[in-house]
Design a protein that fits this description.
This protein is mostly beta strands. Helix content is 14%, strand content 41%. Strands 1, 5, 7, 8, 9 and 11 form a six-stranded antiparallel β-sheet that branches. A six-stranded antiparallel β-sheet has the order 29-28-25-24-21-32, with no helix packed on it. The chain is extended and about 90 Å long. The N and C termini lie far apart (99 Å).
Length: 474
């Protein structure tokens, strides 16, 4: 009898808690992968978890067949900002299910991406097991809310520095102006809000700032229109400042040349403290016009010297000095569309690279040369082009070793070192610098064989012979 009374009491408490929670609509889109046997006839359960609890298990409606997009609506308790999706497949173990993605629109009876009531995407992209599996959102837009705000104290001012890279190619046969547009400051976050605590307003300039919409969502039930009105006013004044001065990206590029143009700008910010109930927030916005500082950095591809010879650039320099400041779309375009071409043409290189021509010498100042077509290593005068070699990068520490005079590549074949125009793996060398400043030169095809000297003649073997590589310029 006591157990029955306790169960009834717990049931009553649970019912009263659920009855006090708000019921809302969730519109759910479930896509089954387009693969053989991707669908299932099994029952699939889902459960949405959030900052206020969870919906409880519900059945996925629809056929769940290959490449099906099943859409349905459920009415469940409001879980707040959704943080997790749990998927549980129940039934025949042999009838597996390949889940592609799930999209959830809160407070809606239809699918609306970025809906103001809340929108979440989950992309498992996997064959589901028969144990419950959890997934966090791959993309989310929490319900947009606004909160009461009260200004506290007077604002302070400070500045930030931002760097932007733009990219263009002059595909014409003559010099032409590229990047003929003016900066709209789309890369600059004009208004930011921080909820981090600070003992003084001065300390707030080092805080982490987020978008107003993101911060507003953290205040939940306290939301009112005043926060939105305040942000709207701040954005309006900020727009006037950001549009008060423009920057011209235009540049006159030589024919057939790609141009990276990097510019640095000073952003004068104003910081104002507000109070939301008992919590502090800090609003940062543009206080004056944005202006360029320093000189623009121009990087042409290909880069050439005064004589017109291409000077290769290390790819990591392009990444670190230019791409990291470019728009992600531009980054992807350069990496996917131009990087391979630039490597093949020798405009850029990866890993090992020695600029200009060099002599390859023994400790006794004997030099590898092709004064006759035969490759030898012996003393020869300083100015001999037959003893000057260019290290043409391939990838990593691998390169061709090309003679300045005969334009031939060193290679290893038939038990001897030779030189001709071939470019197979036998003509590819891994060059590694040692701590003492000398170099090991290992053949790529015969990976245990190093370029060396045997009985006073150039040869190869397992001995790690240390060469001096001395620059002679172009």
């Amino acid at each position: 009898m006591k157990k029955q009374i306790i169960l009834i009491a717990l049931s009553t408490i649970l019912f009263s808690i659920q009855a006090s929670a708000q019921l809302i609509d969730y519109y759910i889109v479930v896509h089954t992968k387009d693969v053989v046997r991707g669908g299932t006839d099994n029952t699939v359960y889902m459960n949405l978890y959030g900052t206020k609890g969870n919906t409880g298990r519900f059945v996925v409606k629809g056929d769940k067949e290959r490449d099906d997009k099943d859409e349905f609506r459920i009415t469940k308790f409001d879980v707040g900002n959704i943080t997790k999706l749990v998927v549980d497949v129940s039934g025949d173990l042999a009838d597996k299910w390949d889940l592609d993605y799930v999209m959830v629109t809160k407070n809606s009876d239809e699918h609306i991406r970025n809906h103001s009531g809340g929108y979440y995407e989950f992309r498992p992209n996997k064959e589901m097991s028969y144990d419950p599996e959890s997934f966090t959102p791959s993309y989310k837009k929490d319900p947009r809310v606004v909160v009461n705000t009260t200004k506290v104290g007077t604002p302070i001012t400070n500045r930030a520095i931002t760097t932007i890279t733009n990219f263009a190619i002059n595909k014409s046969s003559q010099s032409n102006r590229v990047m003929s547009y003016q900066e709209t400051w789309g890369e600059v976050e004009s208004v930011g809000v921080s909820t981090e605590d600070a003992t003084t307003m001065g300390a707030s300039v080092t805080l982490t700032y987020e978008s107003p919409e993101t911060v507003a969502g953290k205040f939940g039930a306290e939301a009112t229109a005043s926060f939105e009105n305040m942000i709207s006013e701040v954005k309006s004044s900020t727009f006037e400042k950001s549009s008060s001065r423009t920057y011209d990206w235009g540049y006159d590029a030589p024919p057939g040349v790609a141009i990276f143009k990097k510019a640095t700008f000073e952003i004068p910010y104003k910081y104002q403290e507000y109070k939301v109930g008992t919590e502090k927030i800090y609003v940062r916005n543009l206080n004056a016009e944005i202006r360029p500082v320093g000189l623009d950095d121009i990087q042409p591809i290909p880069q050439k010297d005064a004589s017109g010879k291409v000077i290769p650039i290390k790819w990591s320099v392009i990444e670190d000095e230019y791409l990291k400041y470019a728009d992600p779309v531009v980054q992807n375009e350069i990496i996917n569309r131009y990087k391979k071409e630039w490597l093949q043409k020798g405009y850029v290189y990866m890993g090992f690279h020695l600029e200009g021509f060099h002599r390859i010498e023994t400790p006794q100042s004997q030099r590898i040369h092709v004064e006759t077509p035969t490759v030898v290593c012996e003393r020869i005068k300083d100015g001999a082009h037959s003893a000057m070699w260019e290290f043409v990068p391939i990838s990593g520490n691998t390169c061709y070793i090309k003679n300045r005079w005969r334009k031939s590549n060193l290679f290893m074949m038939d038990a001897k070192i030779q030189a001709d125009s071939r470019k197979g793996s036998e003509a590819q060398w891994e060059v590694t610098k040692q701590n003492n400043g000398t170099y090991l030169i290992r053949n790529v095809r015969f990976k245990f064989q190093y370029l060396g000297m045997v009985d006073g003649k150039i040869s190869y073997g397992r001995t790690k012979y240390q060469w001096s590589i001395k620059e002679v310029g172009w």
